[in-house]
């Protein structure tokens, strides 16, 4: 486990951030982002004021209504609704936010950075670094496999993002203040992402 410019402080097996921080949990499809969020922030549980946004949770809510329609038909609408929700959630005074994103789309990274700067809230990155074959196995396990061409694009862009994060997290998402990279094993050992006033 290592970090770049770190305001999010790693203590034991916990990550700690300022009370108003936005944390982007990133990784290629199948890396385990939703799995980690379900473990740390179970659906229906009290998150002590932490807001959690995950496109998988939105998809699950839409499934009873649209489940009989091929997912490829309504995927663009789901993504649009998710990013509108994300942008609306990044506002001052709303408290901490953890959000799910693959981070391999430049336009999304720029949009997140722009919104965080406009809202005046600190943004941090947690990157789940998982090999492509392991991520593909994760996709099969969840029962939804990303198209080969799209997956190849995610995997091709990911190593450069890791290098940029190590150099300066702001090269990944404009204005990002820190980056923490976790392997699958390290993510499994992570016990919490907590928010509050930091003491150094």
Q: Report the portion of residues in β strands.
A: 15-25%
CATH superfamily: P-loop containing nucleotide triphosphate hydrolases
The profile of the biggest β sheet is: 6 strands, mixed
If you compute it from the alpha carbons, what radius of gyration comes out, rounded to the nearest whole angstrom?
Answer: 16 Å
What is the CATH C-level name? Alpha Beta
Structural category: alpha/beta
Shape: globular
Average residue pLDDT: 86
Question: Helix tally?
Answer: 7
Taken together, the total number of domains comes to 1
Q: Considering DSSP H and I runs of 4 or more, what fraction of the residues is helical?
A: 40-55%
Count the E strands: 9
In CATH, the architecture is 3-Layer(aba) Sandwich
How is this structure best described in words?
The structure is a single chain. This protein is α/β, with parallel strands linked by helices and 200 residues long. The chain has a single domain, classed as Rossmann fold (3-Layer(aba) Sandwich). It is 45% helix and 18% strand. The protein has 7 helices and 9 strands, in the order E-E-E-E-H-E-H-H-E-H-E-H-H-E-H-E. The chain has a 6-stranded mixed beta sheet, sandwiched between helices. It has a 3-stranded mixed beta sheet with strand order 2-3-9, with no helix packed on it. Strand 2 and strand 3 form a beta hairpin. Helix 2 crosses helix 3. The radius of gyration is 16 Å and the shape is globular. It starts with a strand and ends in a 5-residue tail after the last strand. The N terminus is likely disordered.
């Amino acid at each position: 486990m290592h970090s770049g410019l770190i305001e999010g402080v790693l203590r034991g097996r916990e990550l700690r951030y300022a009370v108003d921080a936005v944390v982007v949990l990133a990784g290629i499809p199948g890396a385990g982002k939703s799995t980690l969020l379900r473990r740390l922030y179970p659906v229906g549980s009290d998150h002590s004021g932490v807001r959690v946004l995950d496109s998988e949770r939105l998809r699950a809510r839409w499934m009873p209504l649209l489940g009989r329609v091929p997912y490829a038909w309504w995927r663009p609408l789901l993504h649009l609704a998710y990013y509108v929700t994300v942008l609306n959630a990044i506002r001052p005074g709303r408290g901490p936010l953890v959000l799910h994103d693959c981070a391999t789309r430049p336009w999304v990274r720029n949009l997140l950075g722009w919104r965080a700067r406009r809202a005046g809230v600190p943004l941090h990155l947690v990157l789940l670094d998982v090999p492509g074959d392991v991520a593909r196995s994760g996709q099969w396990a969840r029962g939804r496999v990303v198209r080969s061409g799209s997956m190849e694009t995610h995997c091709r862009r990911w190593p450069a993002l890791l290098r940029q994060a190590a150099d300066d997290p702001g090269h990944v998402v404009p204005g990002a203040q820190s980056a923490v990279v976790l392997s699958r094993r390290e993510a499994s050992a992570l016990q919490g992402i907590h928010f509050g006033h930091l003491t150094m």
